[in-house]
Amino acid sequence: MVKSDIQNIKLRFGIIGNTEGLNRAIDIAMQVAPTDLSVLVTGESGVGKESFPQIIHQFSRRKHGPYIAVNCGAIPEGTIDSELFGHEKGAFTGAISDRNGYFAEANGGTIFLDEVGELPLSTQARLLRVLESGEYIKVGSSKVQKTDVRIVAATNVNFADAIAEGRFREDLYYRLNTVPIKVPPLRERPDDIALLFRKFAADFAEKYRMPSIQLNEQAKRMLVEYPWPGNIRQLKNITEQISIIETNRDITPEILSTYLPDMGNSSRLPAFVGGKGAHSGNKSFESEREILYQVLFDMRRDVTELKKLVHEIMTEREAAGHHVAHPVDSGSHFLQTPTVDVISDVPMVMPQQYPQVSQIQPVNKVSSITPVSNVSVKHTDSDYQDTEVYVEENLSLDDVEKEMIKKALERHNGKRKNAANDLKISERTLYRKIKEYGLE
Ligand SMILES: Nc1ncnc2c1ncn2[C@@H]1O[C@H](COP(=O)(O)OP(=O)(O)OP(=O)(O)O)[C@@H](O)[C@H]1O
Ligand SMILES: [Mg+2]
Residues in domain Sigma-54 factor interaction (predicted)? Predict the structure, then answer.
């Protein structure tokens, strides 16, 4: 394919980079698009696999037909057959009417099966049949249905292992992998790293209406030498974190290293890799970040509530004549008011509803939920020595909180009541925070 065609595709699909491996992957996508062959896009998490099924669809004869992206890893095993192939009324409890699945909806178009390696074996058998004959059967039915769907699948798992361990059917793998497209990891594209950084920095500068962050020469070198386990998603994420948090826009290696995990420093915010909704698309990064902000926000609220509770318990016990080791006794500014942003060894409840964010390192190390009656309010010397660390972490959490509030207000067109509901805080607290952060 001519070089200028590849450049045009990159422009159209927002793909940055110019390394051989990337160009080759785009070239294959273009060549295979007009055929109906199945394509398997492979590559580590965050390398940018999601653009490829879109390119293939847009350059195929199906481009006016439907394009459906399904994240196979996000659908529970119990419902995936019904989601993909539909069900008949009465097929199972709750099946109150007939339902078409994605394979019926995508008739005449393309279906993108993201994280295809996560499909349960029973679903793999159904998928193999569609690939071989275009036929499928709705759950609870015996009638064979036909569909005309082009399948593009993606995975970041190693199929050789999955096949060897009996988790993935070998025959299905060969069917899906008629044409393989391999998207290279970022560490094999060193020349693209600075390009991507500059683009993301400019985008976030515009989004947050701030001057763009700039790297000095040594910081640039550090960026290129970093192995990027989370690939482009991680680079984008970190560029956004730095853009939001750092007031000094000139980024030195010292600052940069605090954002790169395993550089001898822990990242201020975790690099978030993986996990998204059932329908993945270009917005997946956005929603991951939102979830991350929400988790941090929730954690912060939980901690504040716990601190209040501890303070109340202490006050009650003191009133009842018990002596508690009160921090004020030792001259520290710990817990002088119920809202002081310092955390002791009080256990914190991790929000259960976000199981996919287990990589987050909580602000405070907490692993279990201890009944409140067992909460110890004794403070050791090391607690006091930790104060500075917490103050620093709280500064960046302030930024996150401010960002969360801004986003919630935007989402609800400035309606404070709805934004407060969304954030699960009272309107009064929201009002106070808006004032505090100057968000009026
Ligand atoms: N070449 C690129 N230029 C600009 N942005 C990119 C590029 N590649 C990826 N991105 C961005 O990086 C993020 C991750 O890409 P994508 O969601 O396609 O990853 P993925 O390979 O599907 O990862 P996973 O296996 O975890 O699903 C997205 O926000 C995407 O827009
Ligand atoms: Mg993906």
Answer: 15-244
